[in-house]
């Protein structure tokens, strides 16, 4: 077993795509967690699984859409069957950022799919995961929302869904308190840098400079802290990981690189 801040824990990555999902899954494994990767496409999960196995981690990738009852149940059951339980859930399903969707031209299907992929997937994952977390004596449920400026720069369906995830996290934090299950939301800014492909397959902190573009590892290190026992008395938090965009810093680099206001 790998030693680290998550040693002895089982983590489900619900929505294990590339970028932030891969960074979080890899760092969780580096820190000792056994990881289940649930993704709608097998290719992405398998690529992440290969990276984790390459650093000596234990991982089980599966194809599952956690926005469906069947998919969420399958993902949670895989954690039980493969590793004997569940301690951490990282809900990373989402998407549909696309800024160019004015409400008067937005197809109803786009709205419905955005809400389902973000909010229904959290509901389905939580309803199946909570009994296992409770059985383990408690645990951690993390959901991925979006920083305030990202929500404002996106379309109204995305902004509604991501704001809803924060509201759900706060409500669930209160509801699940007696079960010793902590619930928090991570709110990333725009992650424009790709996840670095290191020689040994591990991930490491990005530059210590604030004046730079966001990197998936910034989210991964925030997630590891919130999932670890170091954050044992933290619940109901919405943590912005955005380099200061939430407080309207004027990053000339991000403004010139992305074309969006910062």
In short:
With 262 residues, this protein is an alpha/beta fold.
What can you tell me about this protein's structure?
The chain has a single domain, classed as 3-Layer(aba) Sandwich (Rossmann fold), CATH 3.40.50. The protein contains eight helices and seven strands, in the order βαβαβαβαβααβαβα. It has helices spanning about 20-30, 40-55, 70-85, 110-135, 150-155, 155-175, 215-225, 250-260; strands at about 10-15, 35-40, 60-65, 90, 140-145, 180-190, 240. It has a seven-stranded parallel β-sheet, sandwiched between helices. Helix 1 (about 20-30) packs parallel to helix 2 (about 40-55), helix 1 packs across helix 7 and helix 3 (about 70-85) packs parallel to helix 4. The radius of gyration is 17 Å and the shape is globular. The N and C termini lie far apart (about 45 Å). The mean pLDDT is about 95.
- The number of distinct structural domains comes to 1
CATH class: Alpha Beta
How many individual helices? 8
Shape category:
globular
Order of helix and strand elements from N to C terminus: EHEHEHEHEHHEHEH
Strand order in the largest sheet: 3-2-1-4-5-6-7
Helical residue percent band: 40-55%
User: What do the pLDDT scores average to?
Assistant: 93
Largest sheet: 7 strands, parallel
Question: Rg from C-alpha positions?
Answer: 17 Å
């Amino acid at each position: 077993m790998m030693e680290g801040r998550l040693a002895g824990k089982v983590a489900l990555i619900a929505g294990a795509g590339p970028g932030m999902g891969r960074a979080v899954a890899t760092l969780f494994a580096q820190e000792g967690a056994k990881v289940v990767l649930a993704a709608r496409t097998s290719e992405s999960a398998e690529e992440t699984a290969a990276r984790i196995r390459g650093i000596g981690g234990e991982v089980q990738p599966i194809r599952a859409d956690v926005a469906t009852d069947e998919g969420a149940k399958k993902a949670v059951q895989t954690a039980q069957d493969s590793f004997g339980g569940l301690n951490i859930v990282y809900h990373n399903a989402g998407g549909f950022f696309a800024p160019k969707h004015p409400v008067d031209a937005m197809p109803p299907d786009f709205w419905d799919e955005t809400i389902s992929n973000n909010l229904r997937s959290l509901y389905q994952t939580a309803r199946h995961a909570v009994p296992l977390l409770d059985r383990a004596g408690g645990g951690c449920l993390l959901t991925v929302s979006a920083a305030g400026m990202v929500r404002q720069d996106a379309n109204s369906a995305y902004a509604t869904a991501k704001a809803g995830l924060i509201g759900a996290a706060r409500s669930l934090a209160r509801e699940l308190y007696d079960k010793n299950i902590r619930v928090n939301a991570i709110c990333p800014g725009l992650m424009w840098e790709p996840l670095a492909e290191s020689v040994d397959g591990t991930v490491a902190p990005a530059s210590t400079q604030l004046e730079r573009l966001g990197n998936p590892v910034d989210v991964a290190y925030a997630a590891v802290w919130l999932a670890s026992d170091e954050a044992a008395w933290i619940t109901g938090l919405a943590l912005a990981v955005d380099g200061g965009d939430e407080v309207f810093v004027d990053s000339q680099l991000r403004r010139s690189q992305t074309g969006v206001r910062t």
